[in-house]
Design a protein that fits this description.
296 residues, alpha/beta, 2 domains, 14 strands, ATP hydrolysis activity, transport, ABC2-1 family ABC transporter ATPase, ATP binding
Length: 296
């Protein structure tokens, strides 16, 4: 089932196209990352998806309903997190969630259940009854995500949800989103400018630049590609075997591809046998390579 369909979508400001002839299909249960630099058009697409702005031309449908024609119906099962979250500082998290649930028509019993469910899921018990003016950036992001998840939406639309978080906060937030997608079965569309985030979280990655879709590709989380940095530039002849191939050479750093019948540990053991001193090694995949090829 198609959860979201964008067809020939464009948004023009004067002579400038923030989005141009954009097409995208998102299936139920997918996690799709919109990957691109700042100003690429990611937020424009998400704002059209949530009816914050209207397209110059083209259509965007959610669950088969045109968002511009019938926004109330189309967005009925959508949980948005667009723009930086801010709350009235004198309200605590419970009061804010209570208000959001009321706006969505929840009963008193349902509101209590929703606050308990979301507080537990997003690990907000320690601060949910504190005034939001005292919240850190990570706490505000969790509360904003909780607001978007009230009343059990089918589709979450998240605009750079880890922006401004420290590494630990980013890691926790990524794990939460993956859990929502995998365990809860929710469809997720998120924007990011971080290759590592898109690679880790998404089933499908859409690379955007200058308002145009440059590439759409499946994310292969298990990869046989590795970036290896050595302390000194190795001889090419010492790197390759019948099972290990160098596909990119940048001096001290190379990208190698291993056969499926050997593991990453086997590659490391081989380099050690050849007395090659490794400074850094990490798995990679086609997303990073394609992104760097397309985005100058």
């Amino acid at each position: 089932m198609m959860e979201l369909e964008a067809a020939n979508l464009s948004k023009k400001y004067g002579n400038f196209y923030a989005l141009q002839d954009f097409n995208l299909d998102v299936h139920k249960g997918e996690c799709v990352a919109l990957l691109g630099p700042n100003g690429a058009g990611k937020s424009t697409l998400l704002k059209i998806s949530t009816n914050i702005i209207h397209p110059t031309r083209g259509t965007l449908k959610i669950a088969g309903i045109n968002v511009q024609d019938d926004p109330m119906k189309a967005l009925e099962k959508v949980g948005p997190l667009v723009e930086l979250p801010e709350f009235y500082p004198y309200l605590n998290g419970t009061e804010i969630l209570n208000f959001v649930c009321k706006v969505k028509g929840a009963s008193k019993e349902k509101i209590k259940d929703e606050i308990e469910r979301l507080s537990s899921m997003l690990k907000m018990e320690e601060f949910i009854n504190k005034k939001s003016g005292s919240y850190s950036r990570g706490m505000k992001q969790r509360l904003a995500l909780a607001c978007s998840m009230t009343m059990d939406p089918e589709l979450l639309i998240l605009d750079e949800p880890t922006f401004g978080l420290d590494p630990r906060g980013m890691r926790e937030f990524i794990e939460i989103i993956r859990e929502i997608n995998v365990k809860e079965g929710k469809t997720v569309i998120l924007s990011t400018h971080l290759i590592s985030e898109a690679r880790e979280i998404a089933d499908k990655v859409v690379i955007i630049n200058h308002g145009t879709k440059m590439l759409e590709m499946k994310n292969e989380r298990e990869t046989n590609l590795m970036n290896v940095t050595f302390y000194s530039k190795p001889e090419a002849s010492t790197l390759e075997t019948s099972s290990i191939k160098v596909i990119e050479d940048h001096g001290n750093t190379v990208t190698i591809q291993r056969d499926e019948n050997i593991s990453n540990d086997d590659v490391i053991d081989y380099f050690r046998e050849k007395n090659l001193k490794i400074r850094w090694i990490e798995p990679t995949n086609q997303i990073e390579r394609k992104y760097l090829e397309l985005i100058n």
